[in-house]
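Please produce the structure of this protein holding glutamine.
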Amino acid sequence: MKYIVVTGGVVSGLGKGVTISSMGRLLQACGLRVTAIKIDPYLNVDAGTMSPFEHGEVFVLNDGGETDLDLGNYERFLNLQLTQDHNITTGKVYRDVILKERRGDYLGKTVQVVPHITNEIQDWIEKTAKIPTNEDGEEADVCLIEVGGTVGDIESSVFLEALRQFQFRVGTDNFLLCFVSLIPILSDEQKTKPTQHGVKDLRSLGLSPSVIFCRCPEELLEPTRQKISNFCHVQADHVLSVHDVTNVYQVPLLLQQQNLHSMVFKHLKIEPKSGPDLGDWALMANAMAHWEDTVQICLIGKYNGLQDSYLSIIKALRHAAIACEHKLDLQWVEATDLEENQDTMEGESWEKVKNCQGVIVPGGFGNRGFDGKVLAAKYCREHSKPYLGVCLGFQAAIVEYSRNVLNLEGANSTEFDESTPHPVVFFMPEIDKATMGGNMRLGSRITKFTNPILTEETGATSILKRLYNNVDMVHERHRHRYEVNPDYVNKIHEGGLRLVGRDETGERMEVAELPGHPYYVGVQYHPEFKSRPLIPSPPFFGLLLAACGKLDSYLAKQATENK
Ligand code: GLN
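Below is the modeled complex.
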């Protein structure tokens, strides 16, 4: 196994994740199998209990792991299926060492950060790198490891010490260290001092980078490259310019132009199997710049202050827009704004909803903004505006339908009103109310299209099922505590809204669709987590196709092809 470790300096939020994913994509384009590990030096065991406002979205894996959003970047860029072990946190490492100490595994020894914690980290990396994460189920050739935070943080020092030891454990031919840094521009000059200091800090810990990625608003100038090379003890052609480009999909191309793959092969003594050939990826990255048509989608959220809170949703919308060959114009709407102006339905937020071509209501927790989401669902239902509700957005559509079409006054989710006369969405019986971490219905579960007929007269089947290529069952990821109350399903069906997909027991509602509407779909699961740049998630693809006015022709074409 070859290891590529990436650390970062100067500031956080540099785009370390995109840089690493892009490097992985380039290596894949040379025929290598790649896997990825993210190290998060915080004490939380996982990201499940973290506020989206503070930390961005919680990314959910197939195995139910609730992780940092960078794992999403890896899965999307590299088309991987990671596990919770691929996200190493200080909390997890200490928890395991303390458990071993209590069991007596250390045979009376004094248990210390060095060597016990540092060994645990190294063992963890070696073990996890071998877990197959590629579609073919084979072990990877190269493992990318991102160390979160910045060099010099107290939190990350134990991981850097573990990695210092690790380079000798696995052999220096199998270990490549990279550093991602910031080159700010002041008075028209590219400044190298922060990078020099960052590398100095890293070297003082016994780690010397072989490649430096320079994040800069503009292309790195030759004198800047030379200066960094001189002061940071790195070959000049190993100082790479990662300047701003028109879209993130260009970054693997940027790295290819600077021959990153050749450096990696030389250092790690690997024979490339082919390429590099970025194929469809390169075509997509280059074509995007030339699209003229724009599609406007409103995202009705409550964590809008930090756009990373909805990262996978935004990515899934983008992937779907790419497949429709449209530029995405994403409009942010605060759900509470819709509530405040519900009588007049005027003001900036309502105008956005009225003028856009489609609406997405994503997942969320807590009362604030829920009624605004219900109002958005109502507006879309009544005005034939394409609507996709994900998790809480699905529950909002159910509540809206119950209140306004079935006339169940006061219908609600028990998450927001425990004494509602019509608990159309309620707490799942098996969930434990006493703890917070890792106790939801999490990870990949089956949804069967058990009632795919939308309209009895015509026999028309679920649009969503057709978008999933007419399969009978899909595997999507979940993260929820509440669900549609089965006691209300008959009533909902009688009203006209169809619950077309259910879990394997048939008790748990997973998909709702409104017949006769251009696209009105709600899903209890989170399809955004499995969307890929070249393979958009079907519910999102449907929303964008409908918003661009292409859904009918797409479905008609699909039907003739299947004949
Ligand atoms: N709060 C809702 C629940 O727990 C929805 C969760 C979500 O949107 N992820 O069921």
